[in-house]
Design brief:
Elements (H helix, E strand, L loop, with lengths): L5 H11 L4 H25 L8 H22 L3 H8 L1 H14 L5 H20 L3
Helix pairs in contact: 2-3, 2-4, 2-5, 4-6, 5-6
């Protein structure tokens, strides 16, 4: 009986053309860091000297972390499945902006966010064989 190692498991998933579940989770977690980055930059932009703001550098760090997470996820998943999941950050950014900055989410914006979620769902379902 052959033992299924992590390396062998990921090779099987890659060959089968499927995306590892943990890679999907990693991309979804990365969208939180995208939200942190964009929110940090908004806060930095509202300071007297954005270049010296720690929030600017927090945003750079969060984007760097997101990049590393995406590269790891893409190694074990399909780009056509993982890239659309990144767009869920639009939803998190809109909700965070409403909460932190008092930005208004109009009915048209709510509809747009619903379409983003619908589109991501359809692409994800379409990625399964």
């Amino acid at each position: 009986m052959q033992i299924l190692t992590f390396k062998k498991y990921t090779q099987i998933i890659f060959i089968m053309g499927k995306t590892a579940t943990w890679a999907i989770g990693l991309v979804l977690i990365s969208t939180i860091f995208i939200t942190v980055a964009q929110t940090s930059w908004k806060i930095a932009a509202n300071t007297d000297n954005p270049i010296l703001s720690l929030y600017l550098w927090l945003g750079f760090f969060a984007y760097g972390l997101t990049t590393v997470m995406l590269i790891i996820a893409l190694k074990y998943g399909e780009l056509s499945v993982l890239a659309p999941l990144n767009t869920t950050s639009y939803i998190w950014v809109a909700l965070t902006s409403a909460y932190l900055f008092g930005e208004i989410i109009t009915p048209l914006k709510w509809a747009g966010l619903a379409f983003v979620l619908l589109g991501v769902s359809l692409v994800s379902i379409g990625g399964k064989k």
